[in-house]
Amino acid sequence: MSDLPNAASVALVRDDKVLLIKRAFAPYQHLWTFPGGRLDPDETIEQCVIREVKEELGLTVRNPRPVTVQRLGSDGTYRLAVFVTTDFSGTILASSEIADHKWVDPAALPAFRTTSRLDDVIRQCLAVLAQQ
To answer: Is 128 helix (H, G, I), strand (E, B) or coil?
Structure first.
């Protein structure tokens, strides 16, 4: 099995808040997380995250910075590359894949049902931004 990422997500950060989406469908239905999705054939992992955010939220992402790669799923089926950026534009137009979205202060995260270890991932993302 390849160790290369086959999915990507991104922390969009604005005014010290992170944009979280609530998934409308499985996997991770009803859980809050970052926007993102699966890699299409013939695209880079950066192109994947840019496309997914455009499809899910209508936002244009630029300069996604790599943060970490996580193995997800009980068998590690998904190898998720996580990015962070403050460089994005547009008006949020959520697709049917998104049940809800909110700008969240990371300190408020315990009030949300999130994907596994999202609090740790957000800390890693903010640490990458702090190195700019």
So the answer is: helix
Bond preceding residue 64 cis, omega within 30 of 0: no
CA–CA gap between residue 61 and residue 5 (Å, rounded): 19
E strand or H helix that includes residue 60: strand 60-61
28: left (phi over 0), alpha (psi -120 to 50) or beta: left
Give residue-wise pLDDT tens across range 55-82: 999 999 999 999 999 987 777 778 999 9
Tokens representing 15 are 């005014």
- Tokens 């993102």, residue located: 36
Nearest to residue 58, comparing CAs of 13, 32, 23, 91?
A: 91
Residue 104 tokens, joined: 């969240």
Q: Note the pTM of the prediction, 2 decimals.
A: 0.94
Q: Which domains does the chain have, with CATH numbers?
A: 7-126 (3.90.79.10)
CA distance 96 to 55: 10
Chain segment 15-29, per-residue pLDDT in tens: 999 999 999 998 889
